[in-house]
Amino acid sequence: MQLFRRQFEIIQEHALRETPYECCGLLAGIIRPSHEGEDYENLVYEIAPCANVLYSGKEHGFEISFSEYLDVEREAKGLGYEIVGSYHSHINSAAIPSNNDINFAKPGHSMIIISVQNMQPAAVTSWYRRESGGFHQEAIRVIE
Ligand SMILES: [Zn+2]
Q: What is the pLDDT, as a whole number, of residue 88?
């Protein structure tokens, strides 16, 4: 997956701002056929910070409301983009998807996880859900 450096920084700033709660947001862009063994690659052009509406346990979980998802999707379409994934943080735990994360990831989408350790972004990973159902880590290409 590819994203701009400024957005890469914004999602980490968002993660720090929401600590001790998990932050969350959506990624909009385009999906293009990839040359690196993946079926497709997600190119992120816009990020949309969202509210974590999980009723309780926001320290180790997140939920994006359906209405906010639809709002972001509509705005993305207006720009010629689609939602290509999401991001969220893990507080004092590794940047590895939880079972809930695995269930949340939609086919064809990328999921960025920012691990915040001791109030610092410690690791940022991305995970890709194949249409066929597999879920694996993918490289994040940060461009200027
Ligand atoms: Zn998670």
A: 98
